[in-house]
Amino acid sequence: MKPQPVIALVGRPNVGKSTLFNQLTRTRDALVADQAGLTRDRQYGVGQLGGGGYLVIDTGGLSGRDGSDIDHLIQQQVQLALAAADHVILVLDARAEPTTDDRQIAADLRRTGKPITLALNKSENLDQTLGGIEFHTLGLGQPHLIAAAHGRGVQQLIRHILPQLPDAEPEADETPEDTIRIAVIGRPNVGKSTLINRLLGEERVLAYDQPGTTRDTIAIAHTAQQQHYVLLDTAGVRRRARIHDQVEKYSVLKSLQAMQQANVVLLVLDAQQGVSEQDMHLAGHILDAGRALVVVINKWDGLTSAQREQIRAELHRRLAFLQFATWHEISALHGSGVGHLLGSAQRAYQAAMREFKTAE
What we know:
Layout: E1 6-10, H1 17-25, E2 43-47, E3 54-58, H2 69-84, E4 87-93, H3 100-112, E5 116-121, E6 144-145, H4 154-161, E7 180-186, H5 192-200, E8 218-224, E9 227-233, H6 246-261, E10 264-270, H7 277-289, E11 292-298, H8 305-318, E12 326-329, H9 341-353
Parallel strand pairs: 1-3, 1-4, 4-5, 5-6, 7-9, 7-10, 10-11, 11-12
Antiparallel strand pairs: 2-3, 8-9
């Protein structure tokens, strides 16, 4: 299955990119206020409007010129989003004429070679036929008049873009029809690659005691007891504030894409570190994606009975919303408890795919 296509939202500060992001993802994940420069880091979300099947990146506001240190950092974030994007939406304020900054941003975007759609936001009181006519001078084709705060025109905008996105449907037959795709998701250094190697019975992926060893998502075909699997080893997802390496910044997007490609997700936790906010955030992403889930508590070996009871209590208290899933306490390094994981993943998949009659 191909990764889901990516749409990046770019533009000057306070033009409504985050409001449009919330409309496309049908969430309130992006912070919205009538204040310029509120968004600085990139925000990722799963597109829902127009039938879904795509990811959306909200970016900080571009100034169109060199400015302060923070402007430079925002510019770097936007460039990373553009590099990952399959399509770009340039969001401008329909109430103002194109500025010098807008022209510079449009010129920079054209040089990327990416498909670009121009969206004129805050167009509530403009004539739908003649409004935004002056924006044709940017050379980006027919502008789309929208009012993101009210959702007006957003459906038409995404319907215009979707046919231009790369096909995210399954490719012509690479794997058997009954294959279960399992994504192994978790924070850096919780033992995801070690677990993959243990499941495969060989050193197939690089496992090293250093966060960030895995940089891209690796798909590995595997057959066990006549059942076909594809195991997706993903890069560790850490808090955005702790992401400094530019290469690693792609890994968040890759992991979200892997989650969307999977039928079942193994959420790997570190028993020796407990539950972090990032673990809970990842669990929320998995539930939002509607994927079958198995919770894997790794590095269980070496803990005393008292420590295990304390960790169990913390896990079940902070992750009470995951009680429906099967939990496994394992040691990927030594193999204890690993033998039951694929069986649990298969049962989770069958439960998620079960069809019910109306009466049931």
